[in-house]
Specification:
2 domains, alpha+beta
Length: 175
């Protein structure tokens, strides 16, 4: 089902997702709305404009064994855990991993256990060009790139917060 169909079904009752093992989870209107918002935000933040419009993205149940916290896959690209009506967690991009992603950019869509996963393009294309130690060096470089990207995200949030605090201080002084 696509996201529009899921939101419609959830607002008129409850939408049901089924995973490949036959387990089902009920999706409420609040869960569907949170998911829509997260997908729209991530589609913009990650520049995933090659994906269809948000409402047309397919929603599939990846793991519905925990019916109150199902894991869903969106368009075979994004993964989320819907934890009741209260929370939504962006999950690691590694298939089957339930770890929360470290950040919001494409480089940080992994959990701390998958920071060493080699990024595409970091090793030579031909297998005979790979020398001993190349995979280990690529894993270190991948981890460093991901950590640098996460640090840049944190720095940007700190700059935004500092700017907000300056504006707040100016407004307080004007009282």
């Amino acid at each position: 089902m696509n996201l529009t169909d899921m939101l419609t079904a959830a607002t008129t009752g409850t939408a049901t997702l089924t995973d490949s093992n036959g387990a089902t989870a009920q999706i409420t209107a609040t869960m569907a709305a949170r998911l829509w918002t997260a997908i729209a935000d991530d589609r913009t933040a990650l520049s995933l404009y090659g994906l269809p419009e948000v409402g047309k993205l397919s929603v599939t149940g990846e793991d519905c064994a925990e019916s109150d916290a199902p894991i869903v896959k969106i368009g075979n690209t994004l993964r989320y855990m819907l934890d009741g009506d209260d929370a939504l967690f962006r999950l690691c991009a590694a298939p089957g991993c339930a770890g929360e992603s470290t950040g919001a950019t494409l480089l940080t869509r992994v959990c701390t256990n998958h920071l060493n996963v080699i990024l595409p393009g970091m090793l030579p294309a031909a297998g005979d060009d790979i020398r001993p130690g190349d995979r280990e060096d690529a894993a270190k470089e991948s981890r460093q790139k991901r950590l640098d990207s996460w640090e840049a995200e944190i720095d940007e949030r700190e700059r935004n917060a500092a700017g907000d605090r300056r504006v707040l201080a100016q407004l307080r002084q004007g009282d």
